[in-house]
């Protein structure tokens, strides 16, 4: 058995945190031979609820759970952690503008970035789930000058998995046989789910579906899937979001499958004309605990316009929080 690694979850008593903690403790994220110590962070009023989560975790008697730290203090939450899943965020309140939401979350993700900088293991892998995920990740990254910017990512894997699910349903082929799906840009309704590189059971996906279905049904359905879940369930995606976060971290830590890739929000580096300065979702391959943006894909005019639109939104989000980007 390996030595335990430390995994932080913020907002651990919330819906996604609750769905996530048990699966990580069961080994779904890092494998059946990797013990974990969970560091669970909550705001002070939620500490009693968090204590209930700890009681349940202990009552599962998970063979891989080597310890649990439950706290409302950032330094304790991030001390020596190897993985940090930043889920807890400020929801949009009544009458709150997008700019207010961005600033309110900046007040959470700036200090969290600084605490990760000061307390986390130097190899920490950070995934931001809490919305607006890409810009929250940017804020955390900018407040952690001693860590490599590449250690900060944002979650678009749920969008990626939703796109797989829609295409599987349309083609009648199980998603196990769908490769090279891509989500470009922001985790928001401007994201661009792109099937141009996708294969379904070895065949080019665009040749299997009508162009009109792709543009008028598939793209908006993936973009609006979160709202559809809220309408159906009366609550936002929780188990699927937790599952996607686990997928993201597992791919990053343990690698992507040969001949396939995953979508990850990562610092833009000029790839595909997206200048540095934002966290943008790209197709990525992972190996040996590192990710690389897939290079050299052909991008047609339709894709270029969609990729630029979601980039514009991210630049606007950045402009709204510029004052929070200095440590
Ligand atoms: P909940 O409101 O159920 O849980 C959030 C938890 O975070 C609460 O328990 C709250 O006490 C805690 N919290 C708030 N501020 C905190 C802070 N400063 N430090 C520590 N904990 C804090 O929301 P939930 O449904 O779990 O969603 C969490 C976040 O994920 C939201 O921002 C949501 O918008 C976002 N999502 C992101 C997705 C993605 O694909 N990137 C999809 C799912 C989800 O909508």
Task: Explain how this protein is built.
With 327 residues, the protein is of the alpha/beta class. 41% of the residues lie in helices and 19% in strands. It has two domains: 5-154, Rossmann fold (3-Layer(aba) Sandwich); 156-320, Alpha-Beta Complex (L-2-Hydroxyisocaproate Dehydrogenase, Chain A, domain 2). Helix 1 (15-25) crosses helix 9 (239-254), helix 4 crosses helix 5 (133-142) and helix 6 (157-171) packs antiparallel against helix 7 (211-223). It starts with a strand and ends in a 7-residue tail after the last helix. Bound molecules: ligand NAX. Ligand NAX binds next to helix 1.
The average pLDDT is 96
CATH homology-level superfamily of the largest domain: Lactate dehydrogenase/glycoside hydrolase, family 4, C-terminal
Quote the distance from N terminus to C terminus: 39 Å
The SSE string, one letter per element, is EHEHEHEHEHEHEEEEEHHHEEEH
Instruction: Indicate the multimeric state.
Output: single chain
Number of helices: 10
**Structural domain count:** 2
Active site: 187 (proton acceptor)
Domain Lactate/malate dehydrogenase C-terminal: 156-322
Binding site for substrate: 92, 98, 131, 162
Organism: Plasticicumulans acidivorans
